[in-house]
Amino acid sequence: MQTQLLIRRATVADLPAIVALVRDVVPLMNASGNFQWTAEYPNAAVFEKDIAQNHLWVAELTGQVIGIAALTQDQDAEYADADWDATEPALVTHRLAVSPQAQGLGVAQALLQQAEHEARALGLRTLRVDTNSENAATQRLFPKLGYRFAGEIKLAFRPGLRFFCYEKRLD
């Protein structure tokens, strides 16, 4: 029986578990005033695309998917409004989520450590992430992991929301 956390690339077979995880997370996010995600976003099509591009990673414990993160080099155009050099290539963490039953177990930290590993493997020295201004948990987590606050932006595809940007430089 598997007893330790496994971080691996997501496969199409993981899609039902990923969608179920997001379905569990969204109401909790919304209840805390964080409307970054809704019943419409992110959806199965978004995750199918992430999987097809080898961008989606899962955290698995005892055979269950308990966390996800898309690790890409995609930087939204609005990233130019943050306090960083938006022209610099970076590994960006998108769609980071942890099952409510697994929160507090270090799953998000493990996924962000995978982002560091991937960045180094790709020869990148910069990690970036954004989070909704109402997501207090990630705003506490990112600085603990060495990310610096890099300003606030708005994203065209999420109107009415504010996002805080964080960046980490790798040595």
TrEMBL record:
Q: Known Pfam families for this protein? A: Acetyltransf_1 (PF00583)
UniProt key word Acyltransferase:
yes
Q: Which InterPro entries match?
A: Acyl_CoA_acyltransferase, Bact_Acetyltransf, GNAT_dom
Q: Boundaries of each N-acetyltransferase domain copy?
A: 5-171
Keywords attached to this Swiss-Prot or TrEMBL record, sorted alphabetically, are: Acyltransferase, Transferase
**CDD domains the UniProt entry points to:** NAT_SF
Q: Which GO terms describe its molecular function?
A: acyltransferase activity, transferring groups other than amino-acyl groups
Work out whether the entry's keyword set contains Transferase.
yes
Q: Which top-level group of life is the source organism from?
A: Bacteria
Q: What is this protein called?
A: GNAT family N-acetyltransferase
Q: Which organism is it from?
A: Hymenobacter setariae
